[in-house]
Amino acid sequence: MKCLVLQAEHCLNLALRGTAVQRGDIAYLPAPAVVDVGVLTEIAPDAVIVPPLADPGHCEPAAVYRHADRVEALLEACQTLGIPLVWGVSDTLYEDGAESPIDETVLPQPRDAAMRRLVEVGQRVRHHPRHLILRLGPLFGLEGEDAWLSELIESLVRGESVRATQDLVLCPTSVMAAARAITGMLLQLDSGAGAWGTYHLCGTEPVSVFTFCSVVRTQLATRLEGVGASPALGELQALNQHHDTPLRRVLDCRRLLDVFGIHQKSWRLELGLMLDAWCQQHYPDHDEADNGSRDSSRGEAARA
Question: What keywords is this UniProt entry annotated with (predicted)?
Answer without folding.
Answer: NADP, Oxidoreductase
